[in-house]
Design brief:
The radius of gyration is 16 Å and the shape is globular. The chain is 66% helix and 8% strand. Strands 1-2 form a two-stranded antiparallel sheet. It has one domain (4-97). It is mainly α. The chain has helices at residues 19-29, 33-38, 42-53, 62-74, 79-93, 99-124, and strands at 4-8, 11-15.
Amino acid sequence: MKYYEIELEGEPIKLRLTSNTICEIEKKTNKSILDLMKEITQTNIVSFLMYMRRFELPNYGSKEANELYDKFIDAGYSMQDIVFKVIYEGLVVSGVMTKEELQQLKEITGIKEKKVKEKIEEITQQ
C-alpha cells in the first residue's frame, strides 16, 4: 500500500488515509472529506495528522497528533506548510486529489500570497 513519507527530526513519518479511515472521518464529522479539506482550521489539521498516522500506528491519538504538529512548527514549518507539504501530499497518495490538482492549489495560493505581500509593501511604503 502506498503512503507519503516525510522525514522530521531524523524520523520517517508515513501518512495515508485508507477508505475505512475516510469513512470514519466523514461519519464522525457529517462532512465529506473534500469539504473538510477546504476548512483549514487547527482542529482539522490535527485531525488529518491523527487519522493519516493511523495507517501505520492504529492507536495514534489526538495527543500524539498535536505533538506531531508542534514538531513540524519547531522544525520551521508554518501552518500553510503543514497543509500543503504534508497533509495534501498525503491526500494525493490516498487518492483524494491528484498531483495536478495539488499543483493548481499551490499555484493559486502562491498568487494570492504574492498579491497580499505586494499590497502590504505598498501600504508600508506610504
